[in-house]
Amino acid sequence: MRRDVFQAIADPNRRAIIDLLAAGQMNVNAVAERFDISRPAISKHLRILTECGLVVIVKQGRERYCKAQTVGLKEVRDWTDHFSKYWDNKLNALKNYIEHEQPAHNKRNKH
Known about the structure:
Elements: H1 5-9, H2 12-22, E1 26-27, H3 28-33, H4 39-51, E2 55-60, E3 63-68, H5 74-110
Antiparallel strand pairs: 1-3, 2-3
């Protein structure tokens, strides 16, 4: 089952795991030690992150190493960019309105 990347980042623990792994790969135990939740909960979060392509787990001997695949966050960035541009346009229009309306308002009040 391929999960949705938005589903994965909806949870603050999963976002924190991505942040942690973005700095470099770590074994599963090292990841689990950084959180105040159970090891099974960490494993579940890692499974979800793996299913949506945000984390890759590589087995090396007896250890399992986790690595962030932040390229998977491009979908989120693209989606938020759309709204960022929308709000930039709206705020720029408001700024222009205020800058052009304010001088006219001041002139009316002086008479």
